[in-house]
Amino acid sequence: MASNPVTADAVRRKLQRLFADYTNKPVVSKVQIIKTTVADTYAYLTHESKEAIRQKKHIYDSKDIVLLSNFDLARYQVLDVEMKEDILNKILDVVYVNELENIIELRQYFAVCDDIEMMFGVSDIRQLNKIIRENTGIIRLYLDGNYQNHQKEIDNGDR
Asked: Measured in Å, how far apart are the chain's first and last C-alpha atoms?
């Protein structure tokens, strides 16, 4: 994304130079100015758009995408309401099943999680943090419930 007016051809030439390290062949034959959002364009190119999914197109793995100039792709990935709800339910399952009692334990769980993208469907921790911020009430109820259950077990001498 350029902050100043630039032609598509100038972008194509810059990409050619950047990709010269990877191959001796021209890799970018055409550059188009997008008229949609970066997120929509990303979904289109990776076949994650609703239309591409409906057509059962192969979905490209985000790990295979080469990002240039420190481009932050996660910043433009937008989750719809259903996806956020699914991710929240997975977070609540993690809290419940692992008997986590506070947010630090939850963060530690994420830190040792082998593949956040595979497990939660998001590319990085910032997206999970955003969902947690939007749902602190219910997550706090789960954490408090686990804490209270643990305290009951201590009081009853079960642990």
From this structure: 57
DSSP readout, 31-59?
Answer: -----S-HHHHHHHHHT-SHHHHHTTPPP
CB 68 within 8 A of CB 18: yes
CA distance 65 to 74: 12
Q: Range with the lowest mean pLDDT among 10-14, 71-75, 106-110, 150-154? A: 71-75
Q: List Cβ neighbours of 14 (8 Å cut-off, separation of 6 or more).
A: none
Predicted TM-score (pTM) of this structure: 0.58
- Check if the beta carbon of residue 159 is closer than 8 Å to that of residue 153: yes
Outline where DSSP puts E strands in the chain: none
CA atoms in the 13 A half-sphere facing the CB of 122: 26
Q: Identify the CA nearest to 29 among candidates 2, 60, 4, 8.
A: 8
Q: Which amino acid is at 65?
A: I
